[in-house]
Amino acid sequence: MKIAIINGPNLNLLGKREPGIYGNESFEEYFQQLQQAFPHVEFSYFQHNVEGEIINYLHQTGFSYDGILLNAGGYTHTSVAIRDAIAAIKTPVIEIHISNVYAREEFRHTSLIAPKCVGSICGLGMKGYRLGVEYFVQP
């Protein structure tokens, strides 16, 4: 089982950025916990602040992985190009958000990528990634 986790803009600052919304843990720390919890899963992790690099990584993993967890950050609400990349690949994608986007600013209430994903998880903190992995590993 191969699962790619892709984080978009500003998520490299997890643990430092707005801890009241995103918590105090870095994603690298959490990623180690995921690897320990699912030793039978081969994970790849990619974070980038540039839209085109996220698209390139979707293309790279989108035909050979069993699942992709994508937290596109602010691109969720603005990127037709990431939406098109998800539509173009065969690997199923789950949209992840650490915060509850529906309890935040109104512009965050619209996801351009959700219609091309198999599901969305939001508002459950970092646990959303674990729930996404569980979806893919459950028979």
TrEMBL record:
Pathway: Metabolic intermediate biosynthesis; chorismate biosynthesis; chorismate from D-erythrose 4-phosphate and phosphoenolpyruvate: step 3/7
InterPro entries noted in UniProt: DHquinase_II, DHquinase_II_CS, DHquinase_II_sf
Active-site residues, Swiss-Prot/TrEMBL: Y22 (proton acceptor), H97 (proton donor)
Gene3D superfamilies in UniProt: Dehydroquinase, class II (3.40.50.9100)
Enzyme nomenclature, EC number: 4.2.1.10
Reaction catalysed by this enzyme: 3-dehydroquinate = 3-dehydroshikimate + H2O
Swiss-Prot/TrEMBL site (Transition state stabilizer) positions: R17
NCBIfam families listed in its UniProt record: aroQ (TIGR01088), PRK05395.1-2 (NF003805), PRK05395.1-3 (NF003806), PRK05395.1-4 (NF003807)
The protein's role, per its UniProt record: Catalyzes a trans-dehydration via an enolate intermediate.
Protein name: 3-dehydroquinate dehydratase
Phylogenetic classification of the source organism: Bacteria, Pseudomonadati, Bacteroidota, Chitinophagia, Chitinophagales
Gene: aroQ
